[in-house]
From TrEMBL:
<dbReference type="Pfam" id="PF13472">
    <property type="entry name" value="Lipase_GDSL_2"/>
</dbReference>
<dbReference type="InterPro" id="IPR036514">
    <property type="entry name" value="SGNH_hydro_sf"/>
</dbReference>
<dbReference type="InterPro" id="IPR013653">
    <property type="entry name" value="GCN5-like_dom"/>
</dbReference>
<dbReference type="Pfam" id="PF08445">
    <property type="entry name" value="FR47"/>
</dbReference>
<feature type="domain" description="N-acetyltransferase">
    <location>
        <begin position="493"/>
        <end position="618"/>
    </location>
</feature>
<dbReference type="InterPro" id="IPR000182">
    <property type="entry name" value="GNAT_dom"/>
</dbReference>
<dbReference type="InterPro" id="IPR016181">
    <property type="entry name" value="Acyl_CoA_acyltransferase"/>
</dbReference>
<dbReference type="InterPro" id="IPR013830">
    <property type="entry name" value="SGNH_hydro"/>
</dbReference>
<protein>
    <submittedName>
        <fullName>GDSL-type esterase/lipase family protein</fullName>
    </submittedName>
</protein>
């Protein structure tokens, strides 16, 4: 007989073990007693519920119903039972959930089976999601058989209840609706609670709540917490945006070791003003940083979505949201920015509804990549930088740009391990070098820019082209001044450091303004990184440094060409970098034979273009 059947037999009650579910909860902030042994687990503090349902919220009614859902909450225990029953009262799906469920049910990429319910992990083995029917008294008995059929003593035989080994059981409650709990009942002798783990707090919208992965244990916050060996406190709310005050009071109830913030996507659907949204994002992230200063905090820019199904409102400021998030994160030292576009490929196949909400495969991808990022960046940036320098100092010359950037403190070393190094220069792109294809592909998936990647060495070119869709391949010669001696510069020439006052003049004569991000020219001028040549007091030529430190931007005005200005300015720049303790280097396109000839004349080593590829989108 099943445990559920035994529960209905009066004479069999003594053979069962029963404990209140309230004492077995993980991922809940508090439990509300409802009488007669029933309790409702809440994943929000009482003070938060007031803010979520206040007039300041965009959709307080929707948020209140979503907040009652039991996403991320588990009932976890050790037992010698062979089968267990969880007594629950499951509420109907709220309207906000039902609309998405109905939409997902029509999508070709929706999960098979129920789109929400109860699922169970037993000794690391996952049991499928179920949504049992209610009994006549309105109680749902969720029963799971715990013994592994593959470990039966003999074919078609099972151990007697209470005679087998203890099982570690973790029952996941529904994500998209709420439920009350009463008892956990088993056919063994003991049901014992499991100690709480470190906590992962996830603050987000429906994508975090678990719409519509098809299994409460298979949405990305649950998978991420499992990979990190943490309990998840899932505070995803369908339809939510950055709401100041919505985390106030939670710090008195929860002390997470890590925090992930995933918000912003819902600005697509309504008119919104950039000024207000900017204020809300800044305030919300400041409140998170202030509440948990010791926690590692990771804030995501919006993930990929398909705009065709539900187009962005024409009066929405959603296009500005990623930059608003980046700016707000930068204002909170220690808070990490994660580019959401790097967590999931741009593919409807990974969406349960085809356009926005990840299915189980999409959720697994997000969790794997986010866990990789959190592990990689958990140690201090200076530690990663020092390791890159150690790995590459006697390494292949093709990896020199990463080594020199690390030495100069330019950009951030994201990955530095045997076989792969990745360095990102803000607003410029990602430099990657590697010999281990597997390790390199993992790093590329989560860290490589989707706009511009500089591949050092020829090995990873194919992977970058295939995995990132960067099909434009521009090989480039790397040139390095590998000597210690300064170069001769005619002392009669008027060479000066240019100031930001020359920005407009320099921009008007630069042949490749597309290489400069907005504000970049003004920045390098302010830092004194551009030298200018003057004739009769008027600027006639200049040379500077690219964001990665490479010497470049060499321009001689037409009327002053063939007067030695290119040689003089590059020599002066090389000398200046030598004085700063740097190794001068540059990037030259193979078809620029005049520049290659100049590099050779000045004594720089010109490396073959096969060792450096700038890869981008068409």
């Amino acid at each position: 007989m099943s445990v559920s059947e035994l529960m209905d037999e009066k004479d069999m009650a003594g053979v069962l073990v029963s404990v209140p579910a309230e004492g077995l909860l993980h991922g809940a902030v508090w439990a509300e007693p409802l009488g007669h042994g029933w309790t409702h687990p809440w994943r929000f503090a009482k003070s938060q519920l007031k803010a979520i349902g206040s007039c300041r919220a965009w959709h307080p009614g929707l948020y209140r119903t979503m907040a009652a859902c039991t996403a991320g909450i588990t009932v976890e225990f050790e037992t010698d039972s062979s089968s267990v029953v969880l007594e629950a009262r499951v509420e109907p799906f709220p309207r906000g959930s039902r609309e998405v469920l109905d939409e997902a049910a029509e999508c070709a990429f929706a999960p098979d089976g129920p789109l929400d319910g109860f699922s169970c992990d037993v000794d690391g083995r996952h049991l499928p999601c179920v949504l049992p029917e209610e009994n006549d008294d309105g109680v749902t008995r969720v029963e799971f058989a715990l013994d592994d059929p593959n470990e039966a003593p003999e074919s078609n035989l099972q151990r007697l209840p209470g005679m087998g080994r203890h099982h570690h059981v973790r029952v996941w409650l529904p994500c998209l609706t709420s439920c009350d709990l009463r008892h956990v009942v088993g056919d063994g002798n003991v049901i014992e609670p499991v100690a709480a783990r470190d906590q992962l707090l996830v603050i987000g919208d429906s994508i975090a709540q678990g719409f519509v992965a098809g299994d409460p244990a298979r949405n990305w916050p649950a998978l991420l917490a499992t990979q990190l060996d943490m309990d998840v406190l899932n505070q995803g709310i369908g339809g939510q945006v950055f709401l100041p005050g919505s985390t106030v009071g939670l710090a008195d109830e929860a002390s997470p070791a890590a925090v992930v913030v995933e918000l912003g996507e819902n600005y697509r659907y309504e008119p919104c003003q950039e000024m207000r949204i900017s204020r809300d994002i800044r305030t919300s992230l400041f409140e998170v940083a202030e509440a948990w200063p010791e926690a590692s905090t990771w804030t995501l820019t919006p993930l990929w979505h398909l705009d065709e199904t539900h187009p962005t409102h024409r009066n929405s400021c959603f296009a500005a949201v990623p930059d608003l998030i980046r700016t707000a994160v930068a204002a909170n030292p220690g808070m990490h920015l994660v580019e959401g576009s790097r967590l999931l490929q741009a593919s409807p196949v990974l969406m349960a509804d085809g356009y926005e909400h990840p299915n189980a495969d999409g959720s697994a991808t997000i969790a794997e990549r986010l866990a990789y990022i959190m592990h990689a960046l958990a140690e201090p940036a200076e530690t990663r930088r020092a390791r890159a320098i150690e790995l590459l100092t006697d390494g292949p010359r093709e990896a020199f740009p990463i080594l020199e950037c690390a030495r100069r403190g330019i950009g951030e070393v994201l990955v530095a391990k045997k076989g792969v190094c990745v360095l990102e220069v803000p607003r410029h792109g990602t430099f990657v070098w590697g010999t281990s294809r597997k390790v390199l592909r993992e790093a590329l998936d989560v860290f490589a820019s989707r706009d511009l990647v500089c591949v050092l060495g020829s090995a990873p070119v194919h992977d970058v082209r295939r995995d990132l869709g960067l099909t434009e391949d521009a090989p480039c010669n790397m040139v390095i001044y590998e000597k210690q001696e300064s170069l001769d510069v005619d002392p009669s020439l008027d060479i000066r450091t240019l100031t930001p006052a020359y920005a407009e003049l320099v921009a008007s004569h630069y042949s490749h303004p597309e290489y400069l991000a907005p504000g970049e020219l003004e920045d390098i001028l302010a830092r004194g990184l551009v030298l200018g040549g003057f004739e009769a007091g008027r600027l006639c030529a200049f040379i500077g440094e690219h964001p990665e430190g490479a010497i470049g931007m060499l321009e001689v005005f037409p009327e002053q060409r063939r007067r030695g200005w290119a040689t003089a300015l590059e020599s002066a720049k090389i000398n200046e970098q030598l004085d700063r303790g740097l190794v001068p280097w540059g990037e030259v396109w193979p078809d620029n034979q005049a520049s290659i000839a100049l590099q050779e004349k000045l004594g720089l080593t010109v490396y073959p273009e096969k060792g450096m590829h700038f890869m981008s989108r068409p």
